[in-house]
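User: structure tokens for this one?
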Amino acid sequence: MISAQNPRSPRRTQRQRRELSQNRMLEAAITLVARQGSSRTTLSEIGEAAGYTHGLVSHRFGSKGELIRTLIGELQTHFAKSLLPALAGKQGLSALKLACATYLRAAARSDRHALYVLIGEALGPVPEIRSEIAKADENFRRAIRRQLDHGIRAGEIRATVDPATEAALIVAALRGLVIQRMLNRDSFNLDSVCKAFNSNLERTLKRPRAEK
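Assistant:
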């Protein structure tokens, strides 16, 4: 008989076991892709790193291509969820500044690194993931456009600002800064760049008081 002081942990359901194994496989894939790219990563390596067999990884995802496509979606979702607590109650320019600074400060994280490796591969040796990477970029621009649109409606951002154009410019700046940081962590002072980036957003987007 199991004593009350040492109860047996409840057994996981099949769904819980499936979710756990999938999460471990994706975490292993993030580490391997960040280190060596998806083109040089095999399902066997992912299974071994996650503590499972090649067969189970293949059964769970069907193919490496499907695993990588799932991984791209997970990387986007994870970052978006990590922003939610900080963005609570914020919209418009304040939310945009916080999101941009958070994105830049996440530059050294392994999951961000994996995403940038995948971006490079989409333009080179793994063109089959290009549409998923393009969709990720579109989602990024769309999220920024939402904050720009809100700021314009609230009278905080100048009405003459084109949200689509500004979103493209902001994404380009963020992507470029992250790449510089990944190539050389000493390429710039992160605190100074975050501060300057937000100052530039204020100067470029904020509606002057005279226009209100």
